[in-house]
From TrEMBL:
Its cofactor is pyridoxal 5'-phosphate. It catalyses: L-threonine = 2-oxobutanoate + NH4(+). This is threonine ammonia-lyase. It is an enzyme of class 4 (lyase). One of its GO terms (biological process) is isoleucine biosynthetic process. Belongs to the serine/threonine dehydratase family. SUPFAM superfamilies: ACT-like, Tryptophan synthase beta subunit-like PLP-dependent enzymes. PANTHER family: THREONINE DEHYDRATASE, MITOCHONDRIAL-RELATED (PTHR48078).
């Protein structure tokens, strides 16, 4: 029987065997590592396939190199064209340089700079990058037009049997590692090429392994396809996990995933951010968002998976440095459970400290935002964490007993963008302080209690925990008279117990904040 006439699953398995002979001309197998999940509570035994350690820091070198290795001499002369959000492009670039084939790569204009630079590094003079549109689909349209007008060979990022077979070599390495079989394998999905290739291989060799697809909540194209019975186009796609941001699942991957996956689960951006942190703290692995989706699903099902052996794939580490910083600052990346809430207190001296002394005792404040905008009441915003989940669960009851009105602000846009309101006309004798304090439990409270209590009232507070040993806050204090403010300033120690630096802002900086 001709190879192309074989059923898709048989052809894919056969092509995976052929891919073994090709892909290792371009790179070496990647390691499989045990991840010891931190507490509390029991969890699964997790093994991580480290595709972030591949030649392009992502798994897509496998499929791209396998596909380009089978181009005929005539096709190679025509050159290749492709579209990519970044990682497939690097695989094409790697193969183009080694095989001496010219490649034009269309990428969305929003492609992270780190991925653009990596394409140039791997491809050298053999590669030309063309930035088109704001989405992967627009890049595909432009690349297909290039194919039509120039005769170049189009290399699909996932809807191609030889690309899928190349990706399946990572599953082959897992099987050959000797650490399997696993009870479950969690495989992230963008267009579906990697999930289909790996699932087909695992199903043949480990038929009892549960195969679970993982997609982002705002980009679940394969889940939509399975529900509809065919690939469908999503109206909009969340691009936080940019490596899997695909509007429509591939037709060939859909056929394979339909017959191999037990189910498809979705994960939120918050859950992905938490998984990125776990990878860093356990394996010192820096994952791009899509690379952590499999682990995010495992963490989401931690209790149900307790005692089982599971496999996840870190599919890539090509993340923009600036995005990494934003993820680290996000609420989802917190190592412990957290709550963000706004609490109503009377606008008078001492009430803020009373709240901290009472309801928030024993909790860690990781974010504190407040600006005075009402004469008689205040609504400070706090994000609090605790190693003890029961303390967070008890917080609403504490607030109720204390007579405080409060609101949950999870995901609030104004809080995320730190839009802190402030009305200057409500102030009498304002003073701004820049405070650097030692980041340990109770240090900020001790400073406020010993230095501020009874001398002034807060009108502004801007603090966010950064993970450094030193916490930094901008504080606004309002005094009853200019004399009281001046006396406070004159006697304020620039350094003291629990804090490293406390200095008043100069007049120019204060005027800029107040708009004077």
């Amino acid at each position: 029987m001709e190879r192309d006439a074989l059923p898709l699953d048989r052809r894919l398995r056969q092509e995976t065997l052929f891919a073994r002979e090709r892909v290792y001309r371009f790179g070496q197998p990647t390691p499989l590592e045990r991840l010891i999940l931190p507490g509390p509570g029991p969890g699964p035994e997790i093994w991580v396939k480290r595709e972030d350690l591949s030649p392009i820091k992502a798994y897509k070198w496998r499929g791209a190199c396998n596909r380009m290795a089978v181009l005929t001499p005539e096709e190679a002369t025509r050159g290749v064209v492709t579209a990519s959000a970044g990682n497939h492009a690097q695989g094409v670039a790697l193969a183009a340089k080694q095989l001496g084939i010219d490649a034009r790569i269309y990428m969305p204009r929003s492609t992270p700079r780190v991925k653009q630079q990596a394409v140039k590094l791997h491809g050298g003079d053999r590669v030309e990058i063309r930035l088109v549109g704001d989405s992967y689909d627009e890049a595909v349209t432009a690349a297909r037009e290039d194919e039509r007008t120039t005769g170049a060979v189009y290399l699909h990022a996932y809807d191609d049997v030889q690309v899928m077979a190349g990706q399946a070599t990572l599953a082959d390495e897992v099987v050959l590692s000797g650490h399997g079989p696993f009870d479950a394998a969690y495989l992230q999905i963008g267009g579906g090429g990697m999930a289909a290739g790996a699932a087909c291989w695992f199903q043949m060799l480990w038929p009892d392994t549960e195969l679970v697809g993982v997609e982002g909540e705002g980009q679940a194209s394969m889940k939509a396809a399975l529900e509809a019975g065919e690939p469908v186009t999503l109206e909009k796609v969340d691009i936080f996990c940019d490596g899997t941001a695909v509007r429509k699942a591939g037709s060939l991957p859909f056929e394979v995933c339909r017959d191999t996956l037990a189910r498809v689960e979705t994960v939120s951006n918050t859950e992905v951010s938490r998984a990125i942190r776990v990878l860093w703290e356990t394996l010192r692995c820096v994952s791009e968002p899509s690379g952590a989706m499999g682990l995010a699903a495992v963490l989401k099902n931690r209790e149900a998976l307790a005692g089982k052996r599971v496999l996840v794939v870190v599919t890539g580490a090509n993340i923009d440095f600036l995005q990494l910083g934003l993820i680290a600052q996000s609420e989802g990346a917190s190592a412990t459970a957290s709550r963000t809430l706004r609490v109503r207190i009377p606008e008078r001296p001492g009430t803020m400290l009373a709240l901290l002394d009472g309801c928030f005792e024993g909790l860690n404040i990781t974010d504190f935002q407040y600006g005075k905008y009402h004469a008689t009441e205040a609504w400070p915003v706090f994000t609090v964490t605790s190693d003890d989940d029961s303390q967070l669960a008890a917080l609403p009851e504490r607030l109720a007993v204390g007579g405080y009105e409060w609101k949950d602000l999870a995901g609030a846009v104004d809080v995320n963008f730190r839009a802190i309101p402030l009305r200057e006309e409500l102030l009498t004798s304002p003073l701004f302080l820049r405070l650097d304090f030692y980041e340990r439990r109770g240090a900020l409270h001790d400073f406020l209690d010993k230095i501020i209590r009874g001398r002034a009232s807060f009108f502004y507070f801007n603090y966010r925990q950064s993970g450094e040993r030193i916490g930094r806050a901008l504080i606004g204090l309002d005094f009853e008279t200019d004399e009281a403010r001046d006396q406070f300033t004159a006697t304020l120690p620039p350094r003291g117990e629990g804090y490293r630096l406390c200095t008043p802002l100069d007049a120019a900086a204060q005027h800029r904040i107040l708009g004077a």
